[in-house]
Amino acid sequence: MIKFSKLTIVILLLLCCGKAGAQYNPAKTDAWLDDHAAEMGGRVILMVWQNGQVVYSHAVNAMNNKQKMARKFMARRQGKTADLDDFTPSTRQPIASCSKWLSAALVMTFVDEGKLQLTDTVGKYLPVLMQHGKGNITISECLSHLTGIKAPELRESIEDVRDAASMDESIEKIANMPMEGEPGKTFHYSNVGLQIAGAILEKITGKSFETLFAERIAGPLNMKNTDFGKGKVALPAGGAISTAEDYLNFLVMILNKGVYNNKRILSENSIAQMQVNRCTPDVKIAYKPEEAGDFGYGYGEWIMDGPVVTSPGLFGSFPWVNNDKKYAAFMMTYYIKSAGRHERYVELKGLVDDMVTR
User: Fold this and answer.
1) CA distances in angstroms from 257 to 57, 251, 308, listed in the order given
2) How far is 81 from 73, CA to CA, in rounded Å?
3) What is the pLDDT of residue 79?
4) Whole-number pLDDT of residue 22
5) The CATH number of 25-78+85-98+219-280+290-356 is which of 3.40.710.10, 1.10.287.470, 3.10.20.740, 3.50.50.60?
6) Which residues 6+ apart lie within 8 Å of 271 measured at CB?
7) Which pLDDT does position 235 carry in this prediction?
8) Model pTM score
9) 26, 43, 97, 126: least CB-packed within 10 angstroms?
10) Residue 140's closest CA among 154, 156, 119?
11) Alpha-carbon span 241 to 95, nearest angstrom
12) 144 with 186: CB under 8 angstroms?
């Protein structure tokens, strides 16, 4: 048996404590959030998960009077009461296109069960699309914005769905949209592909999209405060409301290759398929939001770089998974101005990468 002197033991303990302290040194990340909160609506919360636990959680709540007035104005336009409360891990906020990741995962649960094939054509389930020359679009193309449909601007598309009386009516509107390229060869970031996929799920199950999401994703992942609302028609591409702690549960499942709390939600193959970049060199980019920069795209998620996947939203929230450094993170915000977002996303990811590096 090896014996150590008391001095040696003390030194070893100090070294270990120093290493542990350095592993999650939050000072630079804290400072970054403090410095950038004002340009992100005045409120922001970031949570990071690694090694089985939340290793970082920091909120900044510093809305100025102008930002409060803007929130009140937006709320009045929506017929709602302005939310001016401080952000916490359980604060519910609309997450816009962060919803796409959730919805793509829901579709993949049906693929895992053999109830859908990624190569299935949409006309098989929705004849109205076949009648308008769109029946040969595949489920895969719906999940990756490769339908070839020339969709309207994102906000207009959202209003079209909200104005529809039923899911069938929303699909009929999509059926009447023009084509701008060959399916599978034309990338146009929009709401239409996931709307089609959501309609197909409703057709094959006889259940609402909201119910399916609750049963297959929100429930198993303990996302108690996440849903797609109670409107007449669900918006799979942008209609979810969630919290930082709920969405982090979803990201942990993605990081753990489909497993959450020892329960398999998605197959490992489905996770891998979601993270394959479908924007190959032969694909024409018809529209990509500026904040996406040079990111590629898989199923419901951007490929930020090789091991990092993400799905930012219109209101600035930024979820990501770093498969290399084995952590998941979610920054919740609520603001509209998109200038500088791409640079902020890259900079924040770099800071968190450094913070969690062992």
Assistant:
1) 23, 10, 13
2) 10
3) 75
4) 41
5) 3.40.710.10
6) 254, 257, 258
7) 96
8) 0.91
9) 26
10) 119
11) 6
12) no
Q: How far is Cα 109 from Cα 220, in angstroms, rounded to an integer?
A: 12
- Which residue type does 65 have? N
Instruction: Give me the pLDDT at residue 6, please.
Output: 47
Residue 276 clears pLDDT 70, i.e. is over it: yes
Are the C-beta atoms of 319 and 98 separated by less than 8 Å? yes
The torsion of the CA quartet 308, 311, 315, 317, rounded to 10 degrees, works out to: -40
Task: Kindly list the distances between the CA atom of residue 123 and the CA atoms of 131, 189, 199, 234, in Å, as whole numbers in the listed order.
Answer: 8, 21, 12, 20
| CB environment 5-27: b (16+ within 10 A), e (fewer) | eeeeeeeeeeeeeeeeeeebebe
194-216: average pLDDT: 98
| Distance of alpha carbon 242 from alpha carbon 91, whole angstroms | 8
Domain boundaries, the chain: 25-78+85-98+219-280+290-356
Q: What is the DSSP string of 298-327?
A: -SSSEEEETTEEE---TT--EEEEETTTTE
Compute the residue count for the chain.
358
Q: Residue 99 has which token pair? A: 């919803």
pLDDT of residue 152: 85
Condensed to tens digits (0 to 9), the pLDDT of residues 131-184 reads 999 999 999 999 999 999 999 886 656 666 777 899 999 999 999 999 999 999
Question: What is the model's pLDDT at position 83?
Answer: 82
Q: With beta carbons less than 8 A apart as the criterion, state whether 204 and 115 touch.
A: yes
**Residue 78: what pLDDT?**
67
